[in-house]
Amino acid sequence: MSSAKSFPNGIENAKRGAAFAAVNIFVEDGQTIGVGSGSTIEYAVQRLAERVSDEKIKVTCVPTSYQARDLVLKYKLPLSDLNRHLYLDVAIDGADEVDEGFTLIKGGGGMFNPGENSCSCRKEVCCHSRSQEKVEHSWRQMEKR
Predict the structure, then answer these.
(1) Residue 145 carries which DSSP code?
(2) Kind of pairing, strands 32-35 and 97-98?
(3) What SUPFAM superfamilies is this protein classified in (predicted)?
(4) Which is nearest to 133 in space by CA: 105, 93, 91?
(5) 55-81 residue pLDDT tens
(6) Lowest mean pLDDT among 17-26, 89-98, 102-111, 127-136
(7) For residues 59 and 86, is the Cβ–Cβ distance under 8 A?
(8) Domains in the chain, start-ordered, CATH in brackets?
């Protein structure tokens, strides 16, 4: 790497690429989409809005946080919730921790929220994580409790 300043741009490019790929690969016309939260989700919502505009696909978005709700509204996508859509076709979200066997932790042991509750409603899950979040010890400690 040529300089420390180029590192954040590389991470942002990777996040954008992962989010765009998730929307391009997993989202289809007529689906109900779970929209997660975190630093990468805006790229996914941006790409989803582009596809809705360009390809005229119809989707319904179920946000899992206030951040996700605000993004869905910002990009003028159809908004719903788990009370109206009990099952999601796909959910795009991040993992807080990932081990070598791809065991994922969402929420890092914090309070349960609609993001965690929506896990059981998903037909498909697209989860992203930066390589720095590959942590094995935290969830194993929680497992022993």
Answers:
(1) -
(2) unpaired
(3) NagB/RpiA/CoA transferase-like
(4) 105
(5) 999 999 999 888 899 999 999 999 999
(6) 127-136
(7) no
(8) 6-144 (3.40.50.1360)
